[in-house]
């Protein structure tokens, strides 16, 4: 038996006895950023494929949701910074080794282009809107002509935005629960799935709903497979990873993870979407909201549970 | 030059003088500490073993905190000392998450703070505050690249360990255990 205690007295705020450096705003950002990445991915993908007429919600109203989500996410991120007046230091350098550094750059670029994208669709969405300044009208016409160019830039960037939050967490080997390489693809898949769900929620077009239901179903199945992959990886891992696995399967986050994320957030909505695809009527709000809720709870579980795990010594 | 600290666990009595010296020297805000003392007890009575360790930032040669810092505020200076520039730190907390030793904390003013090996004292040719006050002289400080230094000699003649070597950080604080 071995027991270790601090004898000099140590109770540092947010560090002892367990780490609480990142809070709900970070989970909220991971969720909103992932969902926005998903929406931007589909909007730009169908624009590049010249199918934007068939997916009007994805390229128009869902993109408004995406820029709102990114903006709220950014505010949440800044809220959790403890030295906010120095936030500009992020853009004084670019450090490839630090996922947060290149992620912040991608986030900046994607936010700017997404706002321009929404601006270019304003006349179509709100025909009564009258832009007073001539130069803005000219700029808008220029953007409308270059939507495909914007889409080609946004498409790879949205994938980076979706994947970087996972890579950021997986890069911390001091937190064994995060330290698995599957987290990047898992967060990306979850982001794409919640993005698709948001598009379904806002869509009034039958074809578009069916299309995104099929896409979402495939993504949910992939996400479940990746979750199994993550747990299996931990199960085959070292002592610290087995401890991390214990939090999921036999610890304080078991119910949150399996009931709210896996069952209510993935399996149940997937069943509802399959039933709907078979032709039965299911109110679309139920599966989509469950998926969105599952996505948020998944990020909360990952952020909170990850900070409970540490290296043994 | 590679600065290292060598701490003799057999000589440490756990008085926590190193902690108080650090807090005074570096004006560490109340409720925080850059170093701390742990007591680990192993075995069952009557065969019990006690180990006392004064712990701090390990100034790792492969420092995860420096790697993950998005602004470069966490950096390594001459001698392998890991420092934080307060005016470049945005307080994102990534370095705190990345440290397997939980050696960093958020200063009440917002930036991240931690042990500096008393960099300001080293520049004047003085020893770190914790080392200079230790009443049992169980702490040694010096250059590991110099084979004649006291720390190098101790590591060649004594049995030692580092904390969480499995984290791959190559720490530069060594503990003599035999």
Q: Care to describe what's here?
A:
The complex is a heterodimer of chains A (313) and B (178). Chain A has 313 residues and is mainly alpha-helical. Chain A has one domain: Up-down Bundle (Formate dehydrogenase/DMSO reductase fold). Chain A is built from eleven helices and one strand, in the order βααααααααααα. The longest helix of chain A is centred in the C-terminal third of the chain and has 30 residues, at 206-235. In chain B, a hairpin with a 3-residue loop joins strand 4 (74-77) and strand 5 (81-84). Chain B is built from six helices and ten strands. Chain B has one domain (3-176): Alpha-Beta Plaits. Chain B has a four-stranded mixed beta sheet with strand order 8-1-10-9. A two-stranded antiparallel sheet of chain B has the order 2-3. Chain B has a two-stranded antiparallel sheet with strand order 4-5. Chain B has 178 residues and is of the alpha+beta class. Chain B is globular and about 50 Å long. In chain B, 20% of the residues lie in helices and 28% in strands. Chains A and B meet through strand 1 and helix 4 of A and strand 2, helix 2, helix 3 and strand 6 of B.
Helix and strand run of chain B:
EHEEHEEHEEHHEHEE
Q: In one word, what is the shape of chain B?
A: globular
How many strands in all of chain B? 10
Q: Helix fraction of chain A?
A: 55-70%
Quickly count the helices of chain B. 6
Radius of gyration of chain B from the CA trace?
16 Å
Q: What is the compact description of this entry?
A:
Chain A is an all-alpha fold and 313 residues long. In chain A, 70% of the residues lie in helices and 2% in strands.
Core attributes:
heterodimer; A: 313 residues; mainly alpha; Formate dehydrogenase/DMSO reductase fold; globular; B: 178 residues; Alpha-Beta Plaits; 4-stranded mixed β-sheet; 6 helices
């Amino acid at each position: 038996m071995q027991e270790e205690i601090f004898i000099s007295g140590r109770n540092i705020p947010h560090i002892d006895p367990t780490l609480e450096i990142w809070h709900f705003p970070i989970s909220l950002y991971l969720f909103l950023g992932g969902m926005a990445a998903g929406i931007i991915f589909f909007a730009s993908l169908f624009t590049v494929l010249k199918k934007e007429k068939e997916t009007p919600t994805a390229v128009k109203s869902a993109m408004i949701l995406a820029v709102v989500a990114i903006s709220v996410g950014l505010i949440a991120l800044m809220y959790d910074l403890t030295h906010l007046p120095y936030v500009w230091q992020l853009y004084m350098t670019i450090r490839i080794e630090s996922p947060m550094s290149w992620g912040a750059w991608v986030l900046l670029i994607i936010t700017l282009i997404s706002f321009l994208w929404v601006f270019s669709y304003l006349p179509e969405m709100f025909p009564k809107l009258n832009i007073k300044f001539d130069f803005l009208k000219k700029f808008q016409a220029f953007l409308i002509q270059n939507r495909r160019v914007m889409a080609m830039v946004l498409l790879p960037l949205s994938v980076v935005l979706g994947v970087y939050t996972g890579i950021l967490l997986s890069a911390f080997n001091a937190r064994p629960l995060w330290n698995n390489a599957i987290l990047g693809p898992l967060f990306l898949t979850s982001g794409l799935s919640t993005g698709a769900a948001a598009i379904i929620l806002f869509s009034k077009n039958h074809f578009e709903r069916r299309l995104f239901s099929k896409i979402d179903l495939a993504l949910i199945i992939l996400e479940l497979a990746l979750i199994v992959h993550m747990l299996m990886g931990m199960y085959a891992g070292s002592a610290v990873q087995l401890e991390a696995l214990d939090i999921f399967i036999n610890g304080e986050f078991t119910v949150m993870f399996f009931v709210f994320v896996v069952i209510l957030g993935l399996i149940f909505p997937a069943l509802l979407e399959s039933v709907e695809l078979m032709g039965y009527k299911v109110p679309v709000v139920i599966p989509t909201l469950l998926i969105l809720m599952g996505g948020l709870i998944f990020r909360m579980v990952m952020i909170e549970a990850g900070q409970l795990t540490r290296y043994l010594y | 030059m590679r600065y290292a600290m060598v701490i003799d666990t057999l000589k440490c009595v756990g008085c926590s003088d190193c902690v108080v010296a650090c807090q005074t020297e570096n004006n560490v805000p109340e409720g925080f500490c850059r170093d701390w003392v742990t007591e680990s007890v192993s075995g069952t009575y009557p065969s019990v073993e006690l180990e006392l360790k004064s712990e701090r930032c390990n100034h790792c040669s492969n420092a995860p905190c420096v790697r993950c810092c998005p602004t470069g505020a966490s950096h390594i200076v001459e001698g392998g000392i890991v420092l934080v520039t307060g005016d470049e730190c945005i307080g994102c907390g990534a370095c705190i998450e990345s440290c397997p030793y939980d050696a960093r904390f958020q200063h009440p003013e917002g930036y991240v703070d931690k042990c500096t090996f008393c960099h300001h004292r080293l520049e004047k040719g003085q020893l770190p505050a914790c080392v200079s006050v230790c009443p049992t002289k169980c702490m040694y400080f010096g250059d590991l690249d110099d084979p004649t230094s006291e720390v190098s000699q101790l590591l060649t003649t004594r049995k030692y360990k580092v904390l969480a070597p499995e984290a791959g950080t190559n720490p530069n604080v060594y503990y003599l255990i035999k």
